[in-house]
Amino acid sequence: KLNARKKSKVQNLRTKVRDSLKDWLWADQMLYDYFKGKLDQKKSKLGAEQLSERISKLAKLNTDLRESCVVAEVNSTRVLAQEFLPYSKDVLGFQIAPEKPFCRYFGIQELQFIEHVRELQMDRLNTWRGKTQEKQ
Q: How much is the pTM?
């Protein structure tokens, strides 16, 4: 599980604290409640059996990918390349199989991934602009 906290760093919130956060973050809570309702509608429409089958299939695919890509979970991030460093010392790090290029995306940190996607999008935009300007 990416961005998972180390078990030693997980804290359960007391009900009073959770309620205070809901009050403070009311707009976020409204968005969450709205989209949770939409998700619940879609789950209901899909049906419990179909949903269960799809969840099982996704879990198997994730397990297969993890087994193929993760060499080790690491507590000491000193062994990780820069792009695989977790954003916090409290988050698990993964040593990824370097010989499998597709595995890079499994363990890359979120900001590095977003930057990579932006670079790809800019390349596509520049290619499109070049083709558009040639036609003029």
A: 0.62
